[in-house]
Amino acid sequence: MEEIEAALDELQRVVDYLDKVLPSNAIVFLRGDLAAGKTTLTQAIAKAKGVMEEVTSPTFSLQHCYEGREGKDLYHYDLYRTTYEEFMKTGLVEEFEKPGWHLVEWGCKRLKDFLQSIGYDVFTIEIEPREKSRIYRMEA
Ligand SMILES: Nc1ncnc2c1ncn2[C@@H]1O[C@H](COP(=O)(O)OP(=O)(O)OP(=O)(O)O)[C@@H](O)[C@H]1O
Ligand SMILES: [Mg+2]
C-alpha cells in the first residue's frame, strides 16, 4: 500500500505515482466520501495527460471522454445517482474496453466484482480528507 499526503498544489506527486504504477489501459475506482477530492484528482490527471477541456463531473451523462495527448485518453464516470442495474442497462460498461484510463467515482462493489470477473484489473484509490490536504491510499 502506497500512501501519499498531498495538498491541492501537490497533486502532481499522486499523478507521478500513478504514471509509474498504472498501465496505459486501466480502470481506477476513486473511493471517498462526498467532497473527498475524487473529481479534483481526476482534473489533475487530465491536466497531466494534456486534456485541454475543462473536466467537470459527469453527473447526468454518467461518463465523459476526454482526448489527451497521443492516445492518452481519459474516461471519467460519476455513478453517484445510478444503481448497478441502471448502469448495466445503459450499456456503458462496454466503454471500459476502450484504451486509456477509466476513472470511476462512486463505483459500487458489485461493479468492481463484475469487472474483475470478466478479466479486468481494478485499481482502487482511497481518499481521506485532512483539513488542508488529502491522504491518497493506493495499491503498491
Ligand atoms: N488534495 C487536496 N487538498 C485540499 N483540498 C482538496 C484536495 N483535493 C480536493 N480538495 C477540495 O475538496 C473539495 C471537494 O473536491 P471534489 O469536488 O474533487 O470532491 P469529490 O470527491 O469529487 O466530491 P463528490 O463526491 O461530491 O463528487 C474541493 O473544494 C477541492 O478543492
Ligand atoms: Mg466528484
Question: Secondary-structure map with pairings?
Answer:
Layout: E1 2-6, H1 11-21, E2 26-31, H2 38-48, E3 63-66, E4 74-78, H3 84-90, E5 101-105, H4 109-117, E6 122-129, E7 134-138
Helix pairs in contact: 1-2
Structure description:
- The chain is an alpha/beta fold and 140 residues long.
- The chain has a single domain, classed as Rossmann fold.
- A 7-stranded mixed beta sheet has the order 1-7-6-2-5-4-3.
- β6 and β7 form a beta hairpin.
- α1 crosses α2.
- It is globular.
- The N and C termini lie close together (5 Å).
- The mean pLDDT is 96.
- The protein binds adenosine-5'-triphosphate and magnesium ion.
- Adenosine-5'-triphosphate binds next to α2.
SS field, number of helical segments: 4
Strand content: 25-35%
Mean model confidence by pLDDT: 96
Largest sheet: 7 strands, mixed
Q: Helical percent range?
A: 25-40%
What would you say the CATH architecture is?
Answer: 3-Layer(aba) Sandwich
Ends distance: 5 Å
Question: What string gives the helices and strands in order?
Answer: EHEHEEHEHEE
Overall 3D geometry?
globular
Q: Write down the CATH topology.
A: Rossmann fold
Low-pLDDT stretches are: none
Alpha carbon gyration radius: 14 Å
Quantity of strands, as a count: 7
